[in-house]
Design goal:
Alpha/beta knot, about 280 residues, alpha/beta, seven-stranded parallel β-sheet, 7 strands, elongated
Length: about 280
């Protein structure tokens, strides 16, 4: 459908990032780039694109042709070896899925989800919407990292969309609300980026492994997913994640170390009490 105004200013520059996890076809990425540019979205991130894994070039000719002028999005897109690295700087992550998953996550339709995205971006936080590969979508492991799941209401008997169609629908929902964005300049505590959360997860899971909490191999993966899901839903801020790091570090100290620190802090407390008492007597 024609209608491009080459002289128009692009006023939508603060939209969510789009993350495509293990896309199989360059054409779908090209059409997704076109859909993004239609809707004023520019930050495209790919996780392990399958044609690149097969040795073909990232900027595939079929992707460029399918983008139909969306080259700027393709040329600026970033490629990552893992989803964890792709979302390291993201503070609010939305997963798209037409299927039910055995994870307790808030599930929203577009009318519910996009006001949340709007608020997140108004607060100066980084937001991303992620899509799974064409054949199987996102796994539970992927969705564990998300704050919520976006479901687009379609025919329940046939709700499967082409990847680029799904990106276009998300982009369109963004355009409906983006003109109302008012970026705030209020200093506030920000939600922790995924990089900080993942660092905490790695520390916690390592110590749980050592302690024997994850000793049942058959349940280990599900237990880790549940633990990650619990903390992800909490929307922790950076300071809260640092506090959790400190708690885990303290609890896993050797008993002799804990006894030393307990005595040290007890002595400090007693010293302050005596100093305060003497000060009161002198006055």
């Amino acid at each position: 459908m024609a209608g491009t105004n080459r002289n128009a200013n692009n006023i939508r520059t603060h939209g969510p990032s789009i993350i495509l996890v293990e896309p199989a076809l360059p054409e779908n990425v090209g059409m997704s780039a076109r859909a993004m540019l239609n809707c004023g979205l520019h930050d495209l991130r790919l996780v392990k694109p399958k044609w690149v894994e097969s040795g073909e070039p990232l900027l595939h000719g079929r992707a460029i042709a399918a983008s139909a002028g969306g080259d700027s999005v393709l040329e600026a897109m970033q490629v990552f070896d893992s989803l964890e690295s792709a979302v390291a700087d993201i503070q609010h992550l939305v997963a798209t899925s037409p299927r039910k998953h055995e994870l307790y996550k808030p599930v929203y339709d577009p009318d519910q989800q996009f006001p949340i995205i709007k608020t997140v971006i108004e607060n100066g936080e980084k937001c991303a919407v992620m899509f799974g590969c064409e054949k199987s979508g996102l796994t539970n492991q992927h969705i564990t990292l998300a704050n919520s799941i976006l479901e687009i209401p379609l025919n329940p008997a046939y709700s499967s969309l082409n990847l680029a169609q799904a990106v276009l629908l998300v982009g369109y929902e963004w355009t409906k609300i983006s003109d109302k964005i008012k970026l705030r300049r209020v200093k506030k505590l920000e939600p922790a980026p995924r990089e900080e959360l993942l660092s905490f997860f790695n520390q916690l899971e390592k110590e749980l492994e050592i302690s024997g909490f994850l000793r049942i191999d058959e349940k280990k993966e599900v237990m880790i997913q549940n633990i990650r899901n619990m903390f992800t839903k909490a929307g922790l801020e950076s300071q809260e994640v640092r506090t959790l790091h400190g708690i885990v570090t303290y609890l896993t100290k050797h008993p002799d170390e804990k006894a030393f620190y307990k005595e040290f802090y007890t002595n400090q407390k007693e010293s302050r009490r005596l100093k305060k008492s003497k000060s009161g007597e002198q006055s």
